[in-house]
Amino acid sequence: MTVVAIVEDEPKLAALLKDYLTSDGFDTRLYDNGTEALNGLLQSPVDFVLLDLMLPGTDGTEICRELRKTSNVPIIMLTAKADEIDRLLGLEIGADDYICKPFSPREVVARVKAVLRRASDTPVKADTGTDFELNENAATLRIGDKECSLTSVELNLLKILYDNPGRIFNRNQIMTRIYNDNRIVSDRTIDSHVKKLRQKIEALKPEQQYIHSVYGIGYKFEMA
């Protein structure tokens, strides 16, 4: 069973994350102090770490750096500090992903699965329901009994968001992933691709929004 360490000093939030992860088949280990967490994780490694940024004792940034000296364990940072977003977007501290508070426990579980999938190359489908099917080989999207074709840019764009449910991508991150020829495109070009992709998805399922705008940052994929 995959063991997830929850390093979080808010007892109610830690307990909520524990409940959702346990119900989804994960085992959990709780820490509410950064120094104790670092010592515990170094002595008894786990399979995954959910790591709050602001902690008593050693903070999350230092814990992440110390773990990275000897381990490639997947790490998702939890942060309520808006001014940390740009630095965490670059994942400069060695984390695999980040989630901004407040967040839904379902989003956290989905992000844990997504990072584990990337780490192990084992397919873990995004939590979109059984009616959402992205066919990369055919460059098509099917929702229920309706299907549409996608351009190569739309396919790559949707795949980036779909493979990382809940993660916010800024326009530059999207740009560098969908254009591998180092061409220069504007933010408006990315926004235009998103708009066209949304229109195609809306034609398949008008009542459901999948691609969400995050004001001042970028876009993310979620069920609601």
Protein model, in words:
By secondary structure, this protein is an alpha/beta fold. It folds into two domains: 118 residues, Response regulator (Rossmann fold); 90 residues, Orthogonal Bundle (Arc Repressor Mutant, subunit A), CATH 1.10.10.10. 40% of the residues lie in helices and 21% in strands. It contains eight helices and eleven strands. The strands form three sheets. Strands 2-1-3-4-5 form a five-stranded parallel beta sheet, with helices on both faces. β1, α1 and β2 form a beta-alpha-beta unit. The longest helix has 18 residues. The chain starts with a strand and ends with a strand.
Task: Spell out the key features of this protein.
224 residues; Rossmann fold; Arc Repressor Mutant, subunit A; five-stranded parallel beta sheet; three-stranded antiparallel beta sheet; 21% strand; elongated
Q: What count of structural domains?
A: 2
The quaternary organization reads as: single chain
User: Hey, roughly how much beta strand do the residues contain?
Assistant: 15-25%
Q: Can you tell me the CATH class of the largest domain?
A: Alpha Beta
Shape: elongated
Number of DSSP helical runs: 8
Topology diagram in text:
Elements: E1 3-7, H1 11-23, E2 27-31, H2 34-43, E3 48-52, H3 60-68, E4 75-79, H4 85-89, E5 97-100, H5 105-120, E6 132-135, E7 140-143, E8 146-149, H6 152-162, E9 169-170, H7 171-178, H8 187-204, E10 211-214, E11 218-221
Parallel strand pairs: 1-2, 1-3, 3-4, 4-5
Antiparallel strand pairs: 6-7, 7-8, 9-11, 10-11
Question: How is this structure best summarized?
Answer:
The protein is an alpha/beta fold. It contains eight helices and eleven strands.
